[in-house]
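WP5 quarterly update. Target: Bifunctional oligoribonuclease and PAP phosphatase NrnA. Source organism: Oxobacter pfennigii. Length: 324 aa.
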Amino acid sequence: MIASEIAAVLKINSNFALSAHINPDGDSLGSMLALYNVLKAMGKNVKVFAGDSLPSNYSYLPGYDSIVNYSEDMDEEFDVFIVVDCGSFDRTGKCSCLSEKSKISINIDHHLTNSLFADYNLVDSNSSAAGELIYQIIKLMGVDIRKEEALCLYTAIFSDTGGFRYSNTTSVTHQIAGDLINTGINFSNIYELIYRNYSLNDVKIMGKALSSIELYSDAKIAYMELLLSDLGDLNLEDVNTSEFIDYARDINTVEVALFVKQVKADEYKLSFRSKNYVDVRKICEKYGGGGHAKAAGCTITGELCDFRDAVIKDLQQALEDGGR
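Structure tokens (predicted):
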């Protein structure tokens, strides 16, 4: 069993580097920091790296302040490089070169499109979140899950299931969540921290994004955008946009929503959400991205006017095909 093999590797080695995908979310950060905290508690030397900026709404996670923005001129070498919630080394951004500075690589993920890129690959698309897999590994190591790890793991699972609302939620998900709650974490506060934790600027910019909503295909497709020109003097990194797309998806007639966010003059991040039958992962794969059937994303370089209509046509075709 690969999970048991990974647990053994973690127990016998001493020097670890951890990373996750660029633009980290609650699952990647929570999973990575749960592993960081448990390995530190075991007396291991552990470094946790990010390939780009971190979302501030997860700053309550134990170990968040220990995350270092990786620089390629760092020359430290490691026994084990662990990548969580990520489909390939490339998706870790600048951290990808850590694979060359480590003796062993481990890949822990729940995405169907994972390329099985490491020496050890624990990939289970039936798991609701990478946090479920990290939970299993910790249990196999025979280590007690403390409040620190429980808070990180609950955040990982809670965020990637949309607060247990998405169809990837299973009975196992709830069993794990119950075990984590039993450690005494303030689980009810996590909802407020993740989903109800907007700054005034966040709300103002949300208004900009909401006002851009356009509907297509008999109001089954919702399109929303946020351009750099909408931000005024604000820095995009200071704005929490992670849940904006849910407002478009939640329109009662909508089956699939698309949120286009401009991050550079010629770079756009696209987020997709569907309700019932459109597999947005397939559309994202066409543009070099990926994710889940009902929640996926990709990055497109170029001019918005050159790809906007093409992506909407892809969504319209998916609707006509019944989501196939």
